[in-house]
């Protein structure tokens, strides 16, 4: 682990209990879980915190609507978050609730400390308040003089006695912190945004309310019982109280946090208010505040009223929890917004996971059982395949910094490079040919290379797909542990000799969408049809559904053998490697346009699930895709070489 400290404290936001968990919450939590798992595997003492944010007017009102007390209501929704994270195997060390007793005491202790220091004073507040966002806005920030710039709901003018935090005092220290710590806010573009905001001037912040009850009271010795704390002061403090701040401080040596993971919606609170509170408490500032982008569905914000909220459990049940984890991290560059699409998820499962990773393992299992009765050795790998091994280790060296910069999609992209090295090595050296030619040592060392690639990729993929990677490791005779990380990744050792254990296919191909599409969007239907919809007045005939399309399995393969069919003017007999145990035999009517020698080693696109047929007495197990015009026939080929067996779609 290159970041020096031996402890890592990783947090998610604590989620409001006025909403049920959806894929946005799951996204943040899964990223944080991945970082925590990596950090533990890399030998760091790790503390991973998540939880729920339960005070404030919004929750008080939501509870009232349901005829419940705020606490009863908070218990119910908080329980749902916790149950989901437990079901998802989220490896949190504490699930904090802002209604926890030690949290309340810690917040009061912090308030007292800031007050004694002179950073909190009493005055009268008059401002525009949005209940939904629990935030005040200036006249200038309001939309049309009334509506909240964040959520669009009407704001209220609130005038009340309030305690204020001297935020203005921290304007310069904050700017200094941003300037001196290039990576304090990630992605870096967000740091610029925050700096512009702070340079615009900071006003003191109202941090107590008298207009509602459901919150933490001021410390008793302040003798001012009508005030409760502003929810954001209460909520942000969870990052400290979870470590025992103000009560039993035995975990405080985890502070400062390695990373506060958040969505971009709450950046201002974390990147401006929070460090200012910490400075006031004389505590060090977090190393990183990392803000990811927003998940939408069909380009729209998800909301309960639109009925388009995606339930993460439904996705996990339909497509597999770990596949879903991989997809979320791989699909969208960290910081950018992403639109959830089942088609994109299916593509990632079938292509990245099924073809690139799963097939490679199947090929190793198949070939090793055929050539060496399952025995695999690393003994000759370094000597016979030094370039491939160097490429593998070069990719791995890149990975950790990518993780620390929250470039999770690039981390996974880079991690797939060694898989492509392995798939290409098989195509290039063709172990079945080596075996035929009696070059057994080379063939078996190639299997050793593939096993080591799979092993190291599994270790680095482990934090994202904890169980699947243990299954791969089991097939390769080891278990993923911090010790295995140390050996295979840090010391770059190779696997000890082992006998391959056959495991069932890890990523069975998914042919069709498995979840119902979003319920009709009532609001959108009532709105003006969009331009694109207007254009599509005349329906295109013969349309098929995505399910129908996926009924055809199209794959890329490499021609490994080609010869003419005797006595036929039209036919060539081909063997095409589709990443399966043995190449497919395909009889293709392309002899008029292609000579066998031109085809050898080139890639073609194959209909892979066609019923086998006999042509001139020869079995044909697929069909090549081609286009024919006046000038003749042209085979359809990928624009660049891709791994054999890659699905087209
Ligand atoms: O803001 N896409 O809680 P919250 C991506 N209690 N991420 C999303 C998302 C989406 N569509 N929707 C929600 C609060 N999130 C406060 C936090 S912390 C001291 C207090 C995720 O329930 C994302 O992480 O509104 C976002 O920042 C968080 O949920 C907001 O959760």
Describe this structure in words.
The chain has 649 residues and is of the alpha+beta class. It has 3 domains: 318 residues, Rossmann fold (3-Layer(aba) Sandwich), CATH 3.40.50.620; 160 residues, Isoleucyl-tRNA Synthetase, Domain 1 (Orthogonal Bundle), CATH 1.10.730.10; 100 residues, Nucleic acid-binding proteins (OB fold (Dihydrolipoamide Acetyltransferase, E2P)), CATH 2.40.50.140. It contains 24 helices and 27 strands. The strands form 8 sheets. Strands 3-2-1-11-12-7 form a 6-stranded parallel β-sheet, with helices on both faces. The chain starts with 6 loop residues before the first strand and ends with a strand. The site of ligand ME8 has 20 residues, from strand 1, helix 1, helix 7 and strand 11.
Q: What is the helix tally?
A: 24
First and last CA, distance: 39 Å
Tell me which CATH architecture of the largest domain applies here. 3-Layer(aba) Sandwich
Strand content: 15-25%
Query: Number of DSSP strands?
Result: 27
Q: Report the sheet with the most strands, covering strand number, pairing sense and barrel closure.
A: 6 strands, parallel
Question: What structural class do you assign from the helix and strand content?
Answer: alpha+beta
Q: Using the alpha-carbon principal axes, give the shape.
A: elongated
CATH topology of the largest domain: Rossmann fold
Which sequence of strands runs across the widest sheet?
3-2-1-11-12-7
The low-confidence parts are 519-539
**What small molecules does this complex bind?**
ligand ME8
**CA-atom Rg in angstroms:** 30 Å
